[in-house]
Design goal:
The chain is α+β, with helices and mostly antiparallel strands. It folds into two domains: 156 residues, no CATH class; 122 residues, Sulfite Oxidase, Chain A, domain 2. The chain has eight helices and 13 strands. The strands form three sheets. Strands 3, 6, 7, 10, 11 and 12 form a six-stranded mixed β-sheet that branches. The two termini are 33 Å apart. It binds the ligand Nc1nc2c(c(=O)[nH]1)N[C@H]1C(S)=C(S)[C@@H](COP(=O)(O)O)O[C@H]1N2 and molybdenum atom.
């Protein structure tokens, strides 16, 4: 029962940690770490049960072994990220952590369906509450000691610092070929070229691009404030949809437009193709997946900003 609670808590805070902005993240991320420590403590205390379980017959044991391997890999990759390992082969340590967690999810659900944990009367006894309380205190203590000793310096989101942004896509979004001479951006009823964007007032923002794969890079971005680009919005506008040449898109509250940059330069140089040339969004305080690259349209819309999948698909 406690193990399911700790796994559920860790999964929920893990997903939330990818969603929350860079400033609010620390509490969720810290709680996620403590949840992970609770899982480790519980698995540790249950090694006997697990060993006995391995005596059962196939295919149960086969699936259990796969699940156990995925769980160990997930925990290992999470710890590896926390002690500062950036890349592990083709992915970041955090990327592996997320991949193993997602692989484990269906196995855990199968286990819950085939061997359901029914609440028992003993679950609500004083002793059970004391055990749960001891677990929380233990997990928080282990997490605190871990951070004070092995934990690498990280941003509030848990991300590790890198010197400059790495060309990164959410899932699979190859860098498009965009001809700079014929590039046009549709923004509210008007079309813009690179030259007309350049003739609007230019602003600079220094802030961190923080990717959910576990890295962040601070840079100085230069370009046009999105609200300057759009001018007065049509009545009834409830969101702005920012669309990439590739089809990737995110929807924003119109109030965010004043803080959002359509950037054409990073650290004094035109954007490289992989980082979103000729123009990409800079959204201070939001995780990287909001920073749409290769922007070709910014359209006011009557749909509310929350009317979108929470994460890009
Ligand atoms: N069109 C498009 N824009 C995108 C993405 C994408 O897949 N497609 N990935 C986002 C994600 S997940 C991140 S972290 C940043 C990465 O920016 P960078 O490549 O400049 O480091 O771009 C965002 N913008
Ligand atoms: Mo990202």
């Amino acid at each position: 029962m406690l193990l399911w609670a700790a796994l559920g808590f860790s999964f929920a805070t893990g997903v939330l940690a990818l969603w929350v902005g860079t400033d609010e993240a620390w509490f969720v991320v810290w709680a996620h770490g403590a949840g992970g420590m609770a899982v480790i403590l519980l698995v540790w205390s249950k090694l006997g049960v697990i060993r006995r379980g391995l005596g059962r017959r196939w295919p149960n044991v086969g699936l259990s072994l796969i699940a156990a391997a995925a769980a160990v890999a997930m925990i290992g990759a999470g710890l590896a990220h926390s002690i500062g390992l950036g890349n592990l082969g083709p992915f970041t340590a955090l990327g592996w952590h997320i991949a193993f967690a997602l692989a484990l999810l269906p196995l855990v659900l199968v286990h819950l369906v085939t061997r359901p944990v029914r609440p028992r009367r003993g679950d609500l006894t004083r002793a059970a509450f004391l055990r749960a309380g001891a677990l929380v205190v233990g997990a928080v203590a282990v997490k605190a000691v871990f951070e004070a000793t092995l934990g690498a310096p990280r941003a509030a989101t848990g991300s590790l610092r890198v010197s400059s942004p790495r060309p990164t896509v959410w899932l699979n979004d190859p860098t498009p070929q965009i001809d700079l001479a014929s590039y046009t951006l549709r923004a509210g009823g008007t079309g813009h070229t690179l030259a007309s964007l350049g003739s609007l007032p230019q602003h600079e923002i220094t802030c961190a691009l923080d990717c959910t794969s576990g890295w962040y890079a601070t840079g100085t971005w230069r370009g046009v404030v999105v609200s300057d680009l759009l001018g007065p919005l049509p009545p009834g506008t409830r969101s702005l949809q920012v669309r990439s040449q590739t089809g990737y898109a995110r929807r924003f509250d119109p109030a965010v437009a004043e803080a959002m940059l359509l950037a054409t330069q990073l650290d004094g140089r035109p954007l490289p193709a992989g980082l979103g040339a000729p123009a990409r969004l800079v959204v201070p305080g939001r995780r990287g997946f909001w920073w749409v690259k290769w922007v070709t349209a910014i359209e006011p819309s009557t749909e509310p900003a929350w009317w979108q999948v929470p994460f890009p698909v």
